[in-house]
Design goal:
With 130 residues, the protein is mainly alpha-helical. The protein has one domain (8-125). It is 77% helix and 0% strand. It contains five helices and no strands. It has helices spanning 8-37, 43-68, 74-93, 100-117, 120-125. The longest helix has 30 residues, at 8-37. This is Histidine kinase. Keywords: Membrane, Transmembrane, Transmembrane helix. The chain crosses the membrane at residues 43-66, 78-96, 102-124.
């Protein structure tokens, strides 16, 4: 399987997952910076948020690497992340202080990744061989 060329859809999926991992890692670094430079209302919650953001970044990086290696299990992990990302995007459009810019920035790549996950090239590349 590794001898075959990777379809463009798979490469695009990997690039998007890497980009998402980089953005989440940047958010984790920013949250860590905020934690050490500003007083937190709840230090425990702030630390938990930093840890969760860092774990999410690592998970996305693992997904990207596994996608490059054509692992079949990546579809479930990527699907779950994109659905969660869409949920946050929807929340960004609503509430007392809506941020549609953030909502679109989250929704557009999530939808693209969801579509890519079910393209024939990605499905064929990540199919488990019997």
């Amino acid at each position: 399987m590794s001898g075959r060329a990777r379809p463009k859809t798979l490469i695009t999926l990997v690039i998007l997952l890497i980009a998402e991992a980089a953005v989440v890692a940047s958010a984790a670094v920013f949250l860590l910076y905020e934690l050490v430079t500003e007083p937190a209302a709840s230090v425990v919650s702030a630390v938990a948020l930093v840890v969760l953001a860092a774990l999410a970044a690592v998970w996305l990086a693992v997904l990207a690497a596994a996608t490059w290696r054509r692992r079949p299990w990546i579809r479930g992990g990527a699907l779950v992340w994109q659905v969660l990302q869409l949920a946050v995007a929807v929340g960004s459009f609503q509430g007392p202080a809506p941020r549609p810019d953030i909502g679109w920035a989250l929704a557009i790549p999530a939808v693209i990744v969801l579509v890519l996950l079910f393209t024939p090239g990605v499905l064929a590349s990540t199919r488990r061989e019997a």
